[in-house]
Amino acid sequence: MPNPDHSSTSENPTKISVALCTFNGEKYLKEQLESIVKQSRPVDEIVVSDDGSTDRTLEIVKILAKANPQISWNILESKSSLGVTANFERAISNTTGNFILLSDQDDIWRIDRVAVSMMAFERDPQTLLFHSDARLVDSQGSAIGGTLFKAIGYSRKERGLVSRGKALTVLLRRNTVTGATTAFKRELFELAKPFPPSWVHDEWLTMFAAIFGRIESSLEGLIDYRQHDSNQIGAAAPTISGRVQKLVESRSKRNARLLARATDLANRINSLGKDVSQEVHRLVAGKLEHEQFRSALPNSRFKRIIPIKFEALRGRYSRFGRARFDIPRDLLQPPD
Prior knowledge:
Elements: E1 16-22, H1 29-37, E2 45-50, H2 57-67, E3 72-76, H3 84-93, E4 99-103, E5 108-109, H4 113-123, E6 127-137, E7 143-147, H5 148-152, H6 156-163, H7 167-171, E8 183-185, H8 186-192, H9 201-212, E9 214-226, H10 240-248, H11 251-272, H12 278-295, H13 301-313, H14 316-319, H15 323-332
Parallel strand pairs: 1-2, 1-4, 2-3, 6-9
Antiparallel strand pairs: 4-8, 5-9, 6-7, 6-8
Helix pairs in contact: 1-2, 8-9, 10-15, 11-12, 13-15
């Protein structure tokens, strides 16, 4: 239910939109939406893209929309599932703000999430994307004694590289940004669209933010990040048993996924030609070559030893992944 009287982005250069994706989220959605509409720096627009819910999700959204007419609401329905990445792309495509905050359907925003996010963009015009830490909570909203950054192992060294404008070197190893904590400028979406299906939306946006501008992160926990059984993307810290399980799982699916991602990124960067630096072209090409190497490793564990050794000596396991995990995985994973 868009508000036709709402000011355009040209009339309001700091128009703030929320792109919220839902799917059977009736249990936590009301609390989450209330935390958005009560922000100390108000949002102008909420776009809700529903991925085929069969519960009361849409009813709850419409009740909250009617109760908060000061915000422009756009509720997008779907009879079939689009999937996480495509649903977020639809939600973002339908926003009209210059600044966009992403939201899952079950997290609770700290009252100043919008205000803190906007200050990051005001400090540095080159910042395309801002993200923060989060407090981990259980299904009831109670703290479970940890933070998102700690759970994913986002280190001081990695944060330092990002703050010095070297985020791409971090992101080509692994993703460190969680969409539920993210805010970004509309121009970033225009640079990054369309999203390839091999990538998750937040990882793809983050990659383009690193290539075309700056990323800023905050150690403040600006949301309560709820952990429960129906999380589509969670933040559980890796356990010893989980790491062992990765060593014995089949190689084919994971390698195919990583290769598809590297291929899609390389193809998009190549299509941009001189719009990106030669250094970016070199790094992205190196990432693709590394994933091609890993995907082509022989089934025989014994025959993998020498090529893996030389790839490690070339430094590509460290440049394009986490060597301490990836080398044992490539050596020990069973044949397909």
